[in-house]
Amino acid sequence: FCEWLSTPVMCKWAGPIIDLLLEHVGHVQLCSKLTELLDSREEWITIKRKSLSPRPLVHLCRLRIRTQMGRHRLKSLTSLPLPDRVIRYLSLAD
To answer: Do residues 45 and 63 share a domain?
Structure first.
């Protein structure tokens, strides 16, 4: 993954791809190549910060709930008796 994302063709997409990865996992240890790529662009500083610090508890809870529900039951998320805001957050809309 690091080698592929570090190639000249893909490096311009490194920030958005890493950001997407961080939204769907609890913790990621980035290799030095990816850290250097994030350092190379000013607009990716928030992505780098996100990768360095422990993820917020609310994010970890969202991931755990989604894992417990399973892929097939996520489709029925809107039928749960939860506030709309929570449903949007769990469905990755927020």
So the answer is: no
Helix (H, G, I), strand (E, B), or coil: what is residue 70?
Answer: coil
Domain count, the chain: 2
Q: How many other C-beta atoms can be found within 10 angstroms of the C-beta atom of residue 14?
A: 22
Domain extent for 82: 57-90
Residue with tokens 């961080």: 22
Give just the sign of the alpha carbon dihedral 38, 1, 33, 23.
positive
45 shares its domain with 82: no
pLDDT in tens, 1-54: 889 988 889 988 999 999 988 888 877 788 888 889 899 999 999 998 888 878
pLDDT for 44 equals 92
